[in-house]
Predict the structure.
Amino acid sequence: MNPEKHDPFAALRYREFRFYILARLFITIAVNFQAVCVGWQIYELTKDPWSLGLIGLTEAIPYILIALIAGYVVDHYSRKKILGVAVTALILSSAFLFYFSLNSEVLIERFGAIPIYGLIFLTGLARGFISPSMFALMSQLVPKNIYANSSTWNSTVWEIGAVSGPALGGFIYGFHGINTAYLMNTVFFGLALLFFMLIASKPVIRPEIKEKLSASLTAGLKFVFSNQIMVGALTLDLFAVFFGGAVALLPFFADEILKVGPQGLGILRSAPAFGACIMAVVLAFNPVKEHAGRILMYAIAGFGLCIIGFALSTNVYLSLLFLMMSGALDNISVVVRTTIVQLMTPDHMRGRVSSVNSIFIGSSNEIGAFESGTAAKLLGLIPSVIFGGSMTILVVGITSRLAPKLRKLSLRSE
């Protein structure tokens, strides 16, 4: 019997999935666009790496605090309505950043950067609901047999947004100013809301046996930690992002080492996502199946090496190459991890398991930014990034030893 022919466009043949990835595209552009603008604005106000790290911590704290409750809400209420409210909060946050920039002379003199941190806190709350809602909704838009393909396209679209968002943010900030930048960002959030609203409401899949609220809130944690493969994959990604994230410090590299300004900062922030886009296309046509666990570990170790290479580079083109390679290798991790979580999670627990995934992965970007800023303050800019890349490689070695089931994992369809 001939094996079924692989269709790299399988998920895109579903109309609502196309609406979903367009919403995903615009929300990713907006989030990354905003990150460049806020990062450079804080850098210009403070010239302090720890202040850049505080941006991440300010967003991570509400994200983590709300995660388990958000997962419970996503599993018991309309995911479309939750997304509508959360994305509206992002629109308001971006609009207030625009207002702050219009009145910056008065407000900065009176409050400093505190209003910016307050709005980033609101962004963290909203994103705490958005991540599990999107993950759970995506699984209701395509059949189970093409989850891996939908994960690849979901990752591809995220990377396209992560390339274009920072580049647009840097160029618009650099050439047209912060006011225009925040106004454009608000429009992108609005487009994301529009495409989410074009998706029909889906039924809420509740467990057959009713659980107490306390048990329901912790069910996702218990499920993940009882699965060696899942917890191993999440832990790998967590520490890779936590220690290997040099992105928060890019304003310093752009200004003090590479001398490329805010426009160059946008390109530097786009470089990992550009590399990831290339890898995503490769994975769409050549999905990881055999030896998936081993490939995952090699990819994350390679990511750590690229971060070390970036830290040592003083040439902008070489730095861009290292960042692109880091993004390409990180994308392998994203696709494999997302596929593992999708395949191993029961439908009625997708929101709660996704919230645990968000605690591991989503917040690790922001906490990693705080770690990077703190390490740079204590060790110096370049030594702190070398330290982070080295720790990433060490974590791969430890996980390989402690999670043999993950190391031997295959995603081949039986």
Summary: The mean pLDDT is 81. The first helix runs from residue 15 to 46.
